[in-house]
Amino acid sequence: MSSSREKTGHEETGDEPSITERIEEDKRLARSLEGTYLFDGTRSQKNYPLNKMCMSLTKPENREAFAADEVAYCARFGLSEESLRLVRERDWIGMIRSGGNIYYVFKLAAIDHVSMQHVGAQQNSMTLEEFRAKLNAHKDQ
Amino acid sequence: MAEIIAAVTTSHVPSIGIAMDSGITQDPYWKPLFDGYLPAKEFVKELKPDVTIVVYNDHGLEVFLDRVPTFGIGAAAQYLSGDEGWGPRPIPPFQGDPELSWHLIEHLVAQEFDMTMFQEMNVDHGFSVPMSVFFGGPAGEVEEWPTRVIPITVNTIQFPLPMAARCFKLGQAIRKAVDAYPKDTRVLIMGTGGMSHQLQGERSGFMQPNFDRMFLDKMVTDPMALTRIPNGVFMKEAGHEGAELIMWLVARGAMNMEVEEVYQHYHVSASLTAAGLACYRNK
Fold first, then answer.
1. B197 vs chain A: nearest CA distance in angstroms?
2. Are A30 and A36 spatial neighbours (Cβ–Cβ below 8 Å)?
3. Is the complex ipTM more than 0.90?
4. Which of A63, B17, B71, B240 is the Cys-Cys partner for B129 at CB 3.0 to 4.6 Å?
């Protein structure tokens, strides 16, 4: 260990994982979860325009503008062709995979009065009934 | 002198708010959940808190990804239910307590918690649903809120999230700050979010009641064990959004090490969430 590092007062004892190891282990675990898209800095940069467009839907006048012309509205935020397609098709799992964050994407679902359970079912490629069964599968644990 | 008189915790999904606002709490789907809330409402009614500190995460109302405060605190005289994309909830405005807010800000920063300060803010379902659950009538109805409020926000959306241990320490710092407030003020602290839930990805709908029940037990018997859970483990055991449970630990940190659980309710499922609720008193 270098002497300059020791001077910081944060020298490591060797008994505990370093901060880098702790972060890496946490991310490794989170990324190992199948069907889960850890919303870290890398992912947050992936489709910022989509999230920003969805966030704008918290204003009623923007919801009206979106409803009037989806393509023109999305163009204001610089959505990619692929993201435009995902929005047009209301492809929820596609949006999540592309870097959409569920809390922002859900504002788009709300425009169509689509419930979170519907969004969940679509992401699982299930019918609503099948998805509800999944939700209650471990009810009696 | 001011005092933290109790802690309460609950899940906070939008659909619980929609059920209250649209008068369907007695439908077969919702009845078991809302019936389970009744004893908690009685507990809070008898407490008569002057101020309720609500620990929650903003879900894209005041906070977007452009700037994400890890910890924030409201210092407004009034907070309104905001429009998250489906219109504001039809509930009365919340009255703030700017004097206590600024006292908390001074005392938290002096304890090295560098809070982001909000002098103008609206609140979303993460805040308003728990308020209706605890302070509303049997169907969640409210004419006027019987308590002033102070919102405390925790980032649980953009990783990295604050660690569980840090959240617990924030609760301890809130406790010290309240204890140092010279005005006679009865303060309730409310931790919200969780329990098991995952909204995003093919794993959405994941829940694990075994983990939630362990968490509920250890909130009473061994909160320090919960503070050692890394956020990756919360995600694995409770879902990507289940990491919201760190906000329960803020409320727990503001209590004595020894607490009595006055009431607990656990219901699977409400929307995509395992809905847990608990009430704690200091021993």
1. 10
2. yes
3. yes
4. B17
